[in-house]
């Protein structure tokens, strides 16, 4: 079963950015999607923001 929620560590692995930068990316995604802090960021949210395809990102998330 694959996860659909994204965490800062996942953003780090996918983008190669630092933890601080990954958290900033997640903050920007939350603002664009109008999600609150308790609502998770999904793989689709991240891919839409970064312009990646889900099928390329999914294998990187463990």
Nutshell version of this structure?
This protein has 62 residues and is mainly α. 56% of the residues lie in helices and 6% in strands.
Architecture overview:
This protein has 62 residues and is mainly alpha-helical. The protein has one domain (5-60). The chain is 56% helix and 6% strand. It has 4 helices and 2 strands, in the order E-H-H-E-H-H. It has a two-stranded antiparallel ribbon with strand order 1-2. Helix 1 crosses helix 2 (19-33). The radius of gyration is 11 Å and the shape is globular. It starts with a strand and ends in a 5-residue tail after the last helix.
Topology pattern, helix = H, strand = E:
EHHEHH
For the record, the count of structural domains works out to 1
Briefly note the structural class of the backbone.
mainly alpha
Kindly estimate the percentage of residues that lie in beta strands according to DSSP: 5-15%
The DSSP helix count reads: 4
> Tell me, what's the shape?
globular
Stretches with pLDDT under 50, minimum 5 residues: none
Major sheet description:
2 strands, antiparallel
Helix content: 55-70%
**Order of strands across the main sheet:** 1-2
User: How many beta-strand segments?
Assistant: 2
Q: Nearest-angstrom radius of gyration? A: 11 Å
Q: In angstroms, what separates the terminal alpha carbons?
A: 10 Å
The averaged pLDDT comes out at 94
């Amino acid at each position: 079963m694959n996860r659909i929620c994204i965490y800062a560590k996942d953003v780090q692995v996918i983008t190669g950015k630092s933890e601080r930068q990954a958290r900033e990316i997640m903050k920007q995604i939350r603002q664009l999607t109008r999600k609150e802090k308790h609502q998770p960021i999904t793989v689709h949210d991240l891919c839409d923001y970064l312009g990646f395809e889900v099928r390329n990102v999914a294998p990187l998330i463990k």
